[in-house]
Design goal:
It is built from 17 helices and twelve strands. The strands form three sheets. Strands 1, 3, 6, 7, 8, 9, 10 and 11 form an eight-stranded mixed β-sheet that branches. Strands 2-12 form a two-stranded antiparallel ribbon. The two termini are 41 Å apart. It has helices spanning 9-19, 39-56, 73-82, 87-95, 101-106, 121-144, 149-153, 168-178, 219-226, 255-258, 276-285, 302-329, 345-348, 358-375, 377-385, 393-397, 412-431, and strands spanning 31-35, 57-58, 67-71, 118-119, 165-166, 193-200, 206-209, 236-238, 241-245, 264-268, 334-338, 390-391. With 432 residues, it is of the alpha/beta class. β8 (236-238) and β9 (241-245) form a beta hairpin.
């Protein structure tokens, strides 16, 4: 009996396309971008990293890719890029947007994360309306039915709000932004593919907005659903279902693009666990001031620091397993993962939901991505050249380039050590 070996669906489609009669070899590679979440801080990191990538990678326009996949905060970036807004446009309107109140009102492209911090008054009112009836039921259970007070208090659960902040204002502003001339708030009107992943709260299954059967939802509403982090934002009602953050199922959901037979998928993940054990050396190597060289232990930051490290570790371990699965299941697709250095204290110590440090963090992400590209120059050059993409060595080596503010001055020793570190990392990856 002959053994039948089946190919993954993406490989089958690629083989069928190549074997189709009368077709010529395809020269233009199919390239996708997958963006993970991470709150406002994650969005700031992704914008800084994308600006660095756009500057140093020739022949690659991040507004003209074949497929965009966004999860949580990454959904806003993905939707903007798919609508023709460049990384530099996003930087201008999301990072470097010090405007007067009048100018801010007139600029529909400006997005202020402060809109995400408005109390969910409607949710509070709706839950408060339920409280009298629930209190009566609770007292009845405790006093009349003689049940325990713990059992009685359980009846008050539905009175607790499902979220603290409202994302409705952000949805309205995004709808206005994507409805400007030359853009669209309709997945079906886009010139490229866009998939924004949320999670169906009732089933726990992923909801790939933008895919067939899921493309009738406005893009701004899909972004709102994909970014509805449970506990912070109420679930988003769409039709008869409620949706929450897409990261509940997977960190990146890059397989959505790989199933579309992509040749190259560039992935950005802002959240990584902090390696405090080796952070001090990394800080000193970059020649930063002494006041930034004292790295505390994780536990010294109390519960918020412990929870942050726990969340980052869970997210990243799941991503690592996903990456191994992608390499195994989609061998014909090259994958490039861009993420922060785990030894980097400046990015870790920033508040995940802070926006006040946006210029500093964006500049830091921009410079750190340039450092990563230099350190991985050999492996990335080989991978990119397979798809007709070239790294601009002159732009990458230019030490004067900056995004939104002057880069911090480093000592001669610090610059020399950084150069040595980049060379060693490059050699290590090349011969690993």
């Amino acid at each position: 009996m002959a053994t039948v070996i089946s190919m993954p669906p993406s490989a089958q489609r690629r083989a069928a396309r190549s074997a189709a009669p009368g077709t010529q070899a395809r020269t233009k590679p199919r390239i996708a971008l997958a963006l993970a979440g991470g709150g406002p801080l994650g969005a700031i990191y992704e914008i800084g990293a994308l600006c660095a990538l756009q500057e140093v990678i020739d022949d690659l326009d991040f507004t003209k890719l074949d497929h965009y996949v966004g999860v949580s905060a990454g959904s806003f970036i993905a939707a903007s890029l798919a609508n023709g807004m460049s990384p530099q446009d996003l930087c201008k309107n999301f990072i470097d947007n010090e405007l007067t109140n009048t100018d801010a009102h007139l600029n529909t492209d400006r997005f202020d994360p402060a809109w995400l911090l408005q109390p969910a008054w409607n949710e509070f009112a709706r839950r408060a309306f339920l409280l009298p009836g629930l209190l009566a039921s609770s007292f009845w259970r405790a006093l009349i039915e003689r049940k325990s007070w713990v059992s009685a208090l359980e009846l008050l659960g539905p009175a607790l709000p499902t979220g603290i902040f409202s994302s409705e204002r952000a949805h309205e502003r995004m709808a206005a932004m994507f409805s400007q001339p030359g853009r669209t708030n309709d997945f079906r009107q886009l010139r490229t593919k866009l998939t924004l992943v949320a999670t169906n709260l009732n089933s726990g299954e992923s909801a790939p907005f933008g895919q067939k059967g899921w493309d009738d939802v406005p893009i701004s509403k899909a972004v709102q659903a994909s970014s509805a982090l449970p506990g912070l934002f109420p679930p988003v009602e769409i039709g008869e279902h409620y949706f929450v953050d897409g990261a509940l199922k997977k960190t990146l959901h890059a397989s959505v693009a790989m199933e579309d037979a992509m040749d190259l998928v560039i992935c950005l993940n802002p959240l990584v666990p902090f390696d405090a054990l080796h952070a001090r050396g990394a800080v000193m190597q970059r020649g930063l001031p002494k006041e930034k060289q004292a790295i505390p232990r994780i536990a010294d930051g109390g519960l918020p620091s412990v929870l942050s490290q726990t969340f980052r570790s869970l997210i990243h371990s799941r991503l690592e397993m996903g990456m191994k699965a992608y390499e195994r299941e989609y061998p014909a697709t090259d994958i490039v993962l861009i993420e922060p250095d785990q030894r980097d204290p400046e990015y870790y110590l920033a508040n995940t939901f802070s926006y006040s440090q946006r210029r500093t963090i964006a500049e830091h992400a921009y410079q750190q991505t340039r450092h990563l590209l230099r350190a991985r120059r050999s492996s990335l050059t080989a991978k990119f050249e397979k798809h007709g993409i070239r790294i601009n060595e002159e732009a990458l080596a230019d030490p004067k380039r900056q995004l939104v503010m002057p880069a911090p001055k480093a000592t001669k020793i610090g610059r020399a050590v950084v150069k040595l570190e980049e060379t060693l990392e490059n050699l290590e990856r090349q011969y690993a």
